[in-house]
Amino acid sequence: MRWIKTAGLTAAVFLLPTSLILFGCVKKDSQPQKKAVPSITVWHWMTDREQSFLELAKRYEQAAGVRINFELYAPSEAYSQKVRAAAQGATLPDVFSVLGEKRDFSAFVKAGYIRDLTPYMEENNNSWKNKFSPKALAVNEFIEGNNYGIKPGIYGVPIDITTIMMLYNRDLFAELGLDPKRPPRTWEEFINIGKKIKASKKQGLVSGWGEIWMIDCLANNFAFNIMGKDKVLATIRGEVAYTDPDWVRVFTLFKEMQDNGLLYNGLVSMVNKTAEQLFSNGKAVFSFNGSWGVNVYRGMNPLLEYGVMYPPKVSDKFPVSVWGGAGSSFMVSDKSPSKEEAIKFLKWLTEKEQQVYLAQQTKNLPANKEAISAIPDELAEFSQAIEYATHPRVWGVGEFPQVIEAFDKGIQSIIIGEKTPEAIAAEVQKIKERELAKKRR
To answer: If you average pLDDT over residues 123-145, what whole number do you get?
Structure first.
């Protein structure tokens, strides 16, 4: 009985302050509370667009009452690692990007990390979809019968487009006795300019060929011109060998460029930022770079006089092509509780007014077709090239990473004189056959 009385007394002692606390809490909660502002988190790697993004975030919050938290993680390699780690840890933000090859993109879609945006693109008679060039959408689209087993649809939103072209220094052209308004159009003209560069002790083409994807880009341009898209894709499918004479010709072009003074010394280990600095400072006659370079060159040397040109035509059999399409794209996390709000924001971001602002501030080509008229003059050539654009992410088939690496590093070996084009063709084909055999098992 003593224990019961003691327990009752103890309970009473504790209940009194508890009831007062609860009463106080109820009284406090009855007061009006300030409503929390909904927010969307966006991860990106684009240092050149950070300030513009922050300004647009302010404008959107004022217009829609939704806070947009742009979080910058650079460089792009570090960004990609962060996104992969976040996917594994189920901590992806509302909006993010998948950089890299189409197979990487497809892996995220298969895992359920990316929202299919097709219904949103097609609602109201395709009103959102029609804002974009088909070439811009294609990079983020999986077509019927794609090799990745992904349901056909559009899984990303382009915020700008890009094309990768050649550029030439007009002042150095004049010094070489060339017409500053007429770049080379054929391979023969290109080679002859190389001979003049070599004789004058100047330096030829700069590009970030230490980042081997840029070698892959130019090599594919040549391949499409020499043998056409169908034969290139047949090679990827394993139906045509890399020892085919057309592929040997592609490899040989890089040897001819090196032998005729068209390549900058040390090109194979050069990062693109170094290449951009050299070209902007007048140290190289040619550059191979993307439309993003317009903003870079202006910042490094506003007085630089340069022109934009297509890669020189090697063959008359097929048209010249360039890599291009969506430059930067955003995907919406299908795991996000705020995915509908995130999609509304991306619709706003790709409307004409916001696209014009981004184009003028960052000198990138807008994804919205209605905003193209507002681009600076120096971007016009890059913009027109979208008609001839292609990209591995739109082909529906993908080459084995091991083959791509052997292909690009093989070209580096050709440039520095370690191996012949024929030897590299044989090595690449050997790796291709090995990977095909693995796939069949």
So the answer is: 92
